[in-house]
Amino acid sequence: MPLNIPNLLSLFRIAAAPFLLLAGWLKMPTLFFVLFALMLLSDALDGFIARLLGQTSELGARLDSYGDISTYLSTALAAWWLWPELLRAEFAYIVAAIAVYILPAFFSLLKFGELASYHTWITKVSAVLMSAGVILLLGFEEPLLFHIAVYFLVIEMLENIAITLILPKNQSNIHSIWHAWKRRHG
């Protein structure tokens, strides 16, 4: 595995996930927010640096996706341990977000036998909205942006499922449904 900067940033998110869980379990919200911020920063930088340095790869795309999964799952569980009442109040939105996040993965596994790493433009916008929404929700108990982000995830889910249905084989870094259609039809 090439140990370049983008891949190391993705691996950081995977390695940081247990520590984020530990921060939640030990009721350490400051450590939680520091780790969460570093994980979000590494997510924002890995793809940018990979393109800047010409270090994009299938492996990098997969590591980024695994880093995202590690971040999302550990954040949800650690937040539950830190703010159970707040998360109970937002339970319907949290369950919806998890379901909407899992459904495209399910389609990808069914069709290709592996997870997709499309990294669409809408996924990038969705990640920014969700990250900011989670920070506002957990840090300030303000749920509006989190709610908007969940609705935006539905659009992302529909596009990702459509891309899976369009593509004959799994491919990474498909910017939009239009790009998937274009790749399929040459």
TrEMBL record:
Alphabetized InterPro entries for the sequence: CDP-OH_P_trans (IPR000462), CDP-OH_PTrfase_TM_dom (IPR043130), CDP_ALCOHOL_P_TRANSF_CS (IPR048254)
Residue ranges of the TM segments: 89-109, 121-140, 146-167
GO process annotations (BP): phospholipid biosynthetic process
Gene Ontology annotations for the cellular component aspect, listed alphabetically: membrane
GO MF, one annotated term: phosphotransferase activity, for other substituted phosphate groups
Pfam families documented for this protein: CDP-OH_P_transf (PF01066)
Sorted UniProt keywords: Membrane, Transferase, Transmembrane, Transmembrane helix
Leader sequence residues: none
Family of this protein: Belongs to the CDP-alcohol phosphatidyltransferase class-I family.
Stated name of the protein: Phosphatidylglycerophosphate synthase
Protein source organism: Sulfurovum riftiae
Native organism taxonomy: Bacteria, Pseudomonadati, Campylobacterota, Epsilonproteobacteria, Campylobacterales
